[in-house]
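The protein record passed on below.

***
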Amino acid sequence: MQKIKQLHSKKAKKIFLEYLSSHNIFEKTKDKLIEIKNKYPNTFSKEINFMIDNVENFFITPPKMFDKIIKNLPEINNEIKYILLGLSLNNSSYYMTSEIKKYFTNLYFGFTTRPRGFSSDLLKVFGLKCCPYCNLFKLDSKIGGLSYEIMHLDHFYNRALYPYFSVSLYNFIPCCATCNSCYKREKDFFEIKHINPHFESFDSAVKFSFEMINQDIFSENQSFYICFSAKNSRKLSFQKALNCIETFDLVKRYNKEFPTILNIFYFGFCITKIKLTKFLIYLKNAMLKTFQNLILKNMRTANF
């Protein structure tokens, strides 16, 4: 799982701020929130004031600050969940929250449908060559090429649950269609913590390991199993990594790719008749590195 480089993030922020400035997004958003506050004067007063006072943070807040903002809006968050579940009452809380949700949703659709798609720009300046969630597919915003998936612009914090982050730069994660549509879907990354590629690195918490299923290395039924283990003692980082592994089904997906490189090794050692012990030593020292550099690179995958 790739971490987006700081230099690329700075370039993306510059482009993003130019867009926000040219469309007067900060001013329009603040005016809209004040309008909503005046329309429902006794509803969620503390939270709407927080939003008005921190308008810019809903668009360019640093990745580490997302959780703090969410925790400052508990009543609005609960009302959004009630609306999604069809349990909300037709009262001021419902109407106020619906207006906030609608405003940010419309901002998002206006943002993604502008003539020069920002998602393409974002992909380029973030410098991502493959999906940061799985590292199994190259990203390409254009249709075509058998080895490419169409790039999706995922919201790390679900747009339906946290609509005020609909157009937040560091909530955007360029990723492959498979991870976004088949695995992540509507999962709540606030409730269940995951590694955010904008400021965390998967390989700082996890390392590859593998197990040999059959001790007879030359058995026709021989197979290996790729797995993960903790790299450091930071329990939260490792738990986030485990959540990523589970959400994106990485063990199953990586092991699906593994037999190809195994066959290369197996065939090469068989025809040169290298002894089993030497094979095992070589395998131990080189298999994972080769798996990374060959499979992850040549089979539509980038380095961890």
The beta strands are 138-140, 148-155, 172-176, 206-212, 224-230. The chain is about 55% helix and 10% strand. Residues 16 and 184 are 25 Å apart (CA to CA). The longest helix spans residues 250-272.
